[in-house]
Amino acid sequence: MRATMIYGPGDIRVEDRDYPAIKMPGDAVVKVAAACVCGSDLWPYRGVKALSEPSAIGHEFVGVVESVGADVTGLAVGDFVIAPFVDSCGQCPPCQNGVTVACEHIAGWGDTDEHGFFVEGAQGQAVRVPQAEATLVKVPGVTEPDDALTASLLTLSDVMATGHHAAVSANVGPGRSVVVVGDGAVGLCGVLAAKRLGATRIIAMSRHEDRAALAVQLGATDVVAERGDLGVAQVRELLGGVLADSVLECVGTKESMEQALHSTRPGGSLGFVGVPTGGAEIPLRYLFDSNIHVAGGMASARTYIPELLKDVLAGTINPGLVFDSVMALEQAPEAYRAMDERRAIKVLLRP
Length: 351
Prior knowledge:
Shape: globular
Mean pLDDT: 96
Low-confidence stretches: none
Helix content: 25-40%
Structural class: alpha/beta
Oligomer: single chain
Largest sheet: 7 strands, mixed
Number of strands: 16
């Protein structure tokens, strides 16, 4: 099969790889219908995250079950499924507590599972899914979704679930004012999540006209282009002299965390989901003095998908709008370039 590999900074290749097969009784093999490039994939692409050897890459996909192991009874060949960005067993204490990203038997895409078997990256034609019954979410009543539905289902694998996690962590709810720091796919999904949870004022911080326009389409009531103290002052002005009840940090840098903290009112809540890239420390004294509640981290997509899936299928949310480019799998190198150069918000890959 064809699959995407990363060899080093700026070096993405689509190569022939072995087609996956069932290795354990709990496995399933999924033929990928759509995958995508994530902002976190850009860290090794940019050299921020070091690589020791060429690696399979990609962690977001949807597709059709091709085969299942002997222990898999809740999935069948032909089911259309969503794969969260990590697998999980569903039985260990973290999974039972809803924190599936901390599963004690976790195996990331493009890595090896606890039995030593390779797990394919998502940016390829097929993937072996360990712990398939607990990991994969069947899309009821859907076997061949159209392009728009496929895109929205794919966001549930990561970015929509992550934006929702930011909003939940920031205690977003009816009547709350919200600031979203970050206008990538996660931040834009955070805007949609805030609207879905009932926020009445949603301020998107964006300096890019196309992304700002999409933020408004997804539910933002205001856009702030300024940063630093000027950005905080603009937020305060828009909110009638106070800062936001809830702030979503969707970038992961020192600057974005500072922007988020200083946009949060005393006693407010900050939800952070940006993958930390170094330097984004949280100043404890500032939290102590302001009583700001901080929560977040890696989203447990598997826990959130069933809830969000209902709204996608009902047509009440359309997170697939964050995909502004669709490319063939063979164009993966160009997909990475487009996102790295900010010519694309998020690229959907079709095998």
